[in-house]
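A reminder before we start the practical. When you read a complex entry, don't treat the lines as separate problems. The point of joint prediction is that each chain is placed relative to the others, so the output describes one connected object in space. Small molecules and nucleic acid strands, if listed, are placed in the same frame. In the example below there are two entries. Take a minute to note the order of the lines before looking further.
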Amino acid sequence: MNTLNNDKKNDKLYKVSGKRVIQSKTGLKRIELRIGISGKVYQMLSPGKTLYLLLNNKFVLIFILVISLFTSVGSAQEDISCYHCHTTVVSQFRNNIHYQKGFTCADCHGGNDLSNSSVISYSVMSGNFIGRPSRSNITDVCSKCHPQEAKDYKTSIHWAQIQKGHTDAATCTDCHGIHEIRAISDPNSSANRQNSPATCAKCHSNKEMMSAWYYGIKTDRFDTYKESFHWRALSNGYTVVATCADCHGNHNTKATTDPNSSTYPENLPKTCGKPNCHPGANFDVKIASGLVHDKESLHTAELVFNKTSLEPQMKDYYLGPFDLAYWIALFFKILTTGVIGIFAGMVILDFFSRIKIHKRW
Amino acid sequence: MPGQNLLEVSDSELRGDNTMEEVFFKRFTFNQLLEHWVMIGSFMTLVISGMPLKFPDAWWSPVIINLLGGFEMRTLIHHTAGIVMVVLGVYHVVYHVFIDRESMLERKVWPTLTDVQDFWQTILFYVGKAEHPKFGRYSWKEKFDYWGAFWGMVMLCVTGLIMMFPFVAMEYIPFAYVHLSTLIHTDEALLATLFIFIVHWWNVHYSPEVFPMSKAWITGNLSEEQMKHEHPLEYEEIMRQMNEKSEKITFKK
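Here is the predicted structure of the whole assembly.
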């Protein structure tokens, strides 16, 4: 900077309109531009001079060094070649248990995973590249490594519906996540015990989706599950209780009307009596009548349960004494409001009578 | 009350004179006091550990559960206190039916027609249109308290045991009844809690008649003044019996 100031003193000035060309004694040329009404002078150095001044400054040199270090380290982390275009997807994939175990995009999507951004998509999409699998093909992708799970899944009502053409029915990714597949034990996993009721409710509380296939799937399953002791324990962090999958099965879930289903009436003693749940549970099927979920009448005190739409053999099993629940709920409503109303009213009367009546008994 | 010690005369022998300083009337036996204390302990524990489950969406529900040491501990506490209450209930019935030799029919705790009249007269008194009714050993309020608790104990203990051992119960009763018992248990518990906190505590605790509290639940005794005020008919009955006794003694001499 000193050189610049020294130069200034010995400058010869050539007046050009609005623009000065300055020839200093040292021979360096610089141009000054007069801009604005204030007549402020901006100096414009020649490129060679600028570079010389910058590289002479050690702080600038250190800055350049640090930036280049960061850039090289950062780009070394981009081990996923697809990142340069599919940024969001790859960011999700970094939370994937498969990524942590060393799998790459190509393991599911096919194609060549050794390419990098400079080779672009031509070689990426070569060979057996399948791109985005259709909903009915997702199972094929997962079954390459998880054959048992896929085999179980193919006995489920979900797979049966997909085969019928209802491709909205749940497949692997709906429960486990698409690019963000986490381990089941991970508390952020959608298939974790604590999160599984909400995961099932994504579809099963969706009225449009449930009524699209066939009339009869109820959309209040999560709400009625919330009435149970199981949910109240689960929501308070006591995870050793039954969630959806424990009774209905996870991969091989079936309709309750299916005789092979774990929730078919005759299979219930076995389902409830699992070694980790209620071992030794032994009850007669007829005696175990009544619904687990259909307790609407208990809490709203309304007879919402439609008895006429049931098949005859299920009717006997389901109905049970649920009318009784309605009457009991009503009885306690009247009893509680009556007793507390009368006696709390008397407490208030007693209280006010002390203000009115001066002479007590 | 034949065969029962109704009077406790304090300091009469030590003073050496015949003037009675203070007379206490025996209200509850030690056995009854003990039952009440155990009842208070188990009931309050059950309310605190049970209500978070009756209202799982309330903001205080997880707070109380965490204070109790988590959900599993809450269940353990609730079950333990519940068993204490079941034992208490069984003991109460067994003691007063089989061990206590008092005749069942002569007990003063049975509701009578007078209680209905007293109930109506009390309301009229509160409105300022009648004298306060005179009570005997147990007022209609106390009888209602007792039989309310009795009914509640039966309901809560039976449904509680069904819920504690659902799969044992399901060997005898339909599964739906297990659900029904959750309904009965929680609704009855809410009724009992509201009744104790509002009505019972007003009568024995908050009411200006007894504030800060009626000490009968600790000592088992009532003072002569309290006795005249709250149970005048019983007081008169005791005094009449006393006079008869003393007349007999003088007659013998």
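Discuss with your neighbour: Chain A touches chain B through 47 residues (CB under 8 Å). What might explain this?
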